[in-house]
Structure formats: structure tokens, C-alpha cells
Amino acid sequence: MQFSAEHRALSDTVTKFVEKELNPHVPAWEKAEQFPAHEVFKKLGNLGLLGLKYPEEFGGAGLDFSYSMVMAEALGTCYCAGVPMGIGVHTDMCTPALARFGSDELRREFLAPSIAGDLVGCLGVSEAGGGSDVAAIKTSAKKDGGDYVINGSKMWITNGMQADWCCLLVNTSDGPVHKNKSLIVVPMDLPGITRQKIHKIGMDASDTAQLFFDNVRVPQRNLIGQEGMGFMFQMMQFQEERLWGAASSLKNLDRLIDLTIGYTRERKAFGKSILDNQVVHFRLAELRTEVEALRALTYAAVDQYVAGKDVTKLASMAKLKCGRLIREVSDSCLQYWGGMGFTWDNPISQSYRDGRLVSIGGGADEVMLSIICKLEGTLPKG
To answer: Which SUPFAM superfamilies did the record assign (predicted)?
Structure first.
């Protein structure tokens, strides 16, 4: 991917925003287990950063997905992964289907204020009995008059405690599991909606909720696109979600290696610095090479996606590699920090905790492997 002057300017803008508006507050937000999404999103909206790839008529910048990738990578300079994840869910996970397939009325009501930073969105796909297996969801929406009546629950919902609306995947018929699902925009202040906070071992600054829907009535005009197309829309959305996740990890991985080089150069043991040991500096060189390989894969996938190609395989590869590399880099670096790496406020331990989610959320490693195998034609028959 070739970075234009516009790409570089965007990266500088986002990096400065992270340095000024996010990083100073990370310790407090981690302790509170929530960052103030409305406040942060409004600041991002004022800078025009919440709708880079969306139509100008709804407040977006009308740019291609490469700009979303640049923003994701720059957000990786944040001192925690939870805040960038909350932002990414809003910009690249709950809004793509609405922007592509929603009616003009629906986009004016929900997309435009989300781009402006006046509304916070979330994505409701996973359930307690159906995470990576999207086809297994049970939440239903039955027609009654001019409304849908929604019953069920959703699990692991990022921004769920603060969201003003949810892009909700539901079963709208009893047909085949890949053709009976629809995406519906659900305002989160409706009667019958209950939120319950989920406490996690990482990503603490990002609030996560379980959502319950008890006879929640939503106008049928809140349907995104056509009924029964929800599964397909969600699969399309996953390409951007997985590329966004890979891109957002890159600068954080570089930062972990940089910090570890600095620390091991200063830390002495048995008369020399830890970094002087060949096993250490060789390992750090190997890890840096792996990060650059992930960067090249991610950039290549983004280039092809912008060119209109199906990048399901490459996006799945990038997601798989990203999740495993975050675990590998943070674990290796933590070892070289010794006891300091095992303390709670250490930047390496922060990434060690946060990064474990990447191999689970947005499609587990095993699902990515199955997708890759299917597209390679290597799955067993029968």
C-alpha cells in the first residue's frame, strides 16, 4: 500500500488525538472499567474521524477503506486496547451495513448523528450459545402490525452499557439458518431492554454488556436492507472488522518491542545488560520481523479490498496472525521484563491481558483456520 500525503496527515491527526485526549486518561478509565464514549466520540466527530468511508451526504468524508485502516493503525498508539476497540466497533463494525444498505431515513436518523459523535452505536451478534457460530443465534424478531417484536439476548457487546442504538442480528423467520436472519437498528432506550455489565480479565476500559430483549417493539422501517439478508450482510461486515483489528495491533506491537529493547538495555544481570544476551536480541529481531510480515499481509489485503476484491481469505489470515502474534510478542517481552512485567500497571502486562481477546472475539482462531481451509479446498469431505 502506498501512503499518500492525505494518509500521512490522517495518521498524524489520529496520533496527536491519542496522545492528547486518550493516553493521559487510560489509567483512570481502566480502573473505572469504562471510557466516556459520548465525550470521546464527540471529539472524534468534531475532527471528522467517525465517518471516513461513509457518504458525504450523511456527514462522512467519502473516502475508501484504506483511510479506516490508517486510523486503526494510528489508534494502536493508545496505551490500552479497550478504547480503540470501542471506537472501532462504532466506526467499522456496527455502521457498515447501515451505511451500505439502510434507507435514507434510517441513515439520517442513526448514521448521520453517529458520524457526528452525537450517538454511540454497538453491534449485537454474539449470544451465550452462539459466538463465532453466527448461524446459531436464537434472538428473534416477529412481525406484529407495523412493528417487530424482539425477544432474546446478546452477549459480549462492546459499548453495550453506553450505546444509544444497536445494529442487531435476529432471526426473522423459521427458514434455513443462513437465510432467516436480518439486521435491525434498535434504539437502546426502548421498553423491555435490560443491560448487564460484564467484568473481564482485559480490555477493561471498554465497557462490555449482556443485553436482554423482552418483547421489545421496533418499527419495521428499522430493518437494514432486505429481510433475510442479515447473515450475508454480517459476513461482508466481518471483512472490514477483521482487517481493522489487524491494523490496530501493528503500532502497539512495535511499541512493545521498542519498550522492551529500552528496558533490557538498561537492566543488568550477571555483569551485562539483558539485551546483550544473544537469545534476547535474536528473539526481539525475530518478533520485529513477524510484525512487519503482519503489516505487509494487512496492507496487501486492504489494497485488494479497496480494489473491490473478495479478501475473506486474506482478512481471515490477518486476523489469525494478529491474535497469535499479540500473544507471542506480549508473552516474550513480559519474560524479559522479569518481575516488573508481572506487575499490573506495566505496559507489557496491559497488552498481555488485552491481547488475549483477539484470538477469541470477531471469530476465534479456529474459525479463521476453518475459513482458510475451506477457501484452500483442504477441508475433509463429508
So the answer is: Acyl-CoA dehydrogenase C-terminal domain-like, Acyl-CoA dehydrogenase NM domain-like
